[in-house]
Amino acid sequence: MAILSVAMKARGTEGEPLPSPFKAFDINRAFFRRGQMSLVAAASGRGKSALMTHWVVNAAYPDGSGIPSFYGSFDSDRMTLGSRVAAGILKKPVSDVEELLKDDRSELWQLVSNRTPHIWWSFKRNPSIGHIEDELEAYAHVYGSFPEMVVLDNLMNIDSGVGGQGWETHDNILAWGEELAALTGAHVCFTCHVKGYVGSGDVPIPMNGMMNNLEKRPRLIFTIYRDVDMTGVMQVDCVKNSTGPAPVHIELPWYPERSMFG
Prior knowledge:
Rossmann fold, 32% helix, alpha/beta, disordered N terminus, single chain, 8 helices, 9-stranded mixed sheet, 19% strand
């Protein structure tokens, strides 16, 4: 038991917002906060990974240093994700970047390395919770502290290790994610799929549109869709925000062929 004022003073950095590369997020107080958990939900191919890889690569403190991050890419291979990250850095079409990366002597390799030293990447397929914990402990041993941002892409690719199916399994993982955020002080963000009735990816996704009704635990939820009448724009809805306004609609200039945000 603790007096509320004492507990608040002892919270450390818990609840503090991390810097964002998206001004529209800041304007709407849609912050990824330390010690909290969020979801980014969308149909396949609608930009979940694009949004979050851009975030970890480009979010920075006022001195220009990147946010120490862990990115678990559990449903995308090294070359696919790497090419998209490189395309965003170079502002070139992904197809051009893939050609450049075929040459081991290409200067692009060094450019990508220079822009992403603050990110620890994992490409384990269907990892267990224990494997992710081991990765984060390894990170802490190497850098002396836990990352400040943890992205787990995708929730549906994580093995809870406790059995169960559907909602029960994924809720167990989110419960672990809440604890992980509290223990490490990091913001923990899961990407996840959506229900079939919004699976086209071309219509707004409500808060209850996530697969297995997972909206209760996260403090912040973004949903993403594509408006077929608006090319070059990612439609993002902040449908849940415990510390800011919701629902809020945000439009981000997005060029998927270059994996680049305007």
